[in-house]
TrEMBL record, chains A, D:
Protein's name in the database: Molybdopterin synthase sulfur carrier subunit
Superkingdom field: Bacteria
CDD domains: Ubl_MoaD (cd00754)
InterPro entries: Beta-grasp_dom_sf, Mopterin_synth/thiamin_S_b, ThiS/MoaD-like
SUPFAM superfamilies tied to this protein: MoaD/ThiS
UniProtKB/TrEMBL annotation, chains B, C:
GO molecular function annotations of the record: molybdopterin synthase activity
Reaction equations catalysed: 2 [molybdopterin-synthase sulfur-carrier protein]-C-terminal-Gly-aminoethanethioate + cyclic pyranopterin phosphate + H2O = molybdopterin + 2 [molybdopterin-synthase sulfur-carrier protein]-C-terminal Gly-Gly + 2 H(+)
Protein name: Molybdopterin synthase catalytic subunit
Species per Swiss-Prot/TrEMBL record: Sphingomonas abaci
Free-text function comment from the UniProt entry: Converts molybdopterin precursor Z into molybdopterin. This requires the incorporation of two sulfur atoms into precursor Z to generate a dithiolene group. The sulfur is provided by MoaD.
Length: 83, 146, 146, 83
């Protein structure tokens, strides 16, 4: 699974993207964030305030309780501020 | 005709207007967003989600085309660094009559603000800050829900 | 800054946009009305009431400037003969934020339609016809009454 | 008093403008139209359907029952169709 980070999430994680293979108990985006935060201070800091995070699963914008089953690409980012 | 552009080059409004007008429309409404100089911003940097951005903007333009029967919908968004006074975004809606063009133009920019994956970072006196999303943007986008 | 022009020359949108943007606004909304080609019009002729036209457009721009706190309001209206596809009118509203710019732009064109002394004559297959006023224009202008 | 005509009113009257000195009983725009129509077929034809006419007195847009007392310029025209 390819993970993508944008804006201050990218800066806090310290990576723009990373390839991971989550264990079977990771069912949703929120589970994925928990799993990533468990082993990394940088990820934990970036994902601390879930209300400030948005996600896309295979480029579909979805809430954090959306499934990541079979996903190839999951993006984590702050609320958008374009225009 | 749908025209979507996401690129670091400055936005050429005259060229975009000519393309939007080409469909024999009677009415073209546009919106241009600019880097405001009045609050001390020296540089604005626009980051986006390549691929997903174009898809989101295309979906938005298609919705506007269908809902208002447009001749043309244009969304041009600049990315990368830009300076005070420069254009960040340009949207245009071309229709037979003015009400459709005006409403579709407002729809495109309101929905772009909440639906398209762009992020702004402002640099003031050498210090970079990520712009926070505005509550009002959600409300502005929501008024277009059917 | 208020900019009013009533003249037979073609409308230069790029130049007008640059002037509207000059006030350090964050948002510029525009409306352009064009001679539609799809209903067989070969030539459109615009007659106006010299003096009274400029005064009416200036009053309209001043109302918009005050009501929405605009940085700039532009109204450019072509007069005399013009061909299909050419621009008849261009209005622009520049403001700090987009809601003010979009609303003021719609106000300017809605009110121009009922308040400014212009008359259109269409020539189709060599036959000239004066355009009748549209009922919908009165309603569109009335929605801006406070 | 200077009278101005626009669009099809101008074409039907056959004049773009004319100088007149109305008698004292001409108090309103409507009176002025009646007085002009009395002596001229062209004016009578142009002013036949009052619902299709609009007026400005000294460049103020006013209803046909508006006073013309002291007016220097009165314009008669159809509903506007600009933009």
């Amino acid at each position: 699974m390819e993970l993508l980070y944008f804006a201050w999430v990218r800066e806090t994680v310290g990576l723009g993207h990373q390839q991971v293979t989550p264990p079977d108990h990771v069912a949703t985006v929120a589970d994925l964030l928990d799993w990533l935060a468990a082993d990394s201070d940088a990820h934990r800091a970036a994902f601390a305030d879930r209300a400030r995070l948005r996600a896309a699963v295979d480029q579909q914008f979805l809430p954090l309780d959306a499934s990541v089953a079979g996903a190839r690409e999951v993006a984590i980012f702050p609320p958008v501020t374009g225009g | 005709m749908i025209r979507i552009r996401v690129e670091p080059a400055p936005i050429d409004v005259a060229a975009e207007m000519a393309l939007a007008e080409a469909g024999e429309a009677g009415a073209v409404a546009t919106f241009t967003g600019l880097v405001r100089a009045d609050d001390g911003v020296e540089t604005l940097e626009l980051e986006h989600y390549p691929g997903a951005t174009q898809a989101a903007l295309h979906a938005l333009a298609e919705q506007a085309m269908g809902r208002w029967g447009l001749h043309a919908a244009t969304v041009v968004h600049r990315v990368g660094p830009m300076r005070a006074g420069e254009r960040i975004v340009f949207v245009a809606a071309a229709a037979a009559h003015r009400a459709a063009a005006l409403d579709a133009c407002a729809y495109l920019i309101d929905r772009l603000k909440t639906d398209a994956p762009f992020w702004k970072r402002e640099v003031r006196a050498g210090v970079a800050t990520w712009v926070e999303a505005r509550q009002g943007d959600e409300a502005a986008a929501a008024r277009w829900s059917i």
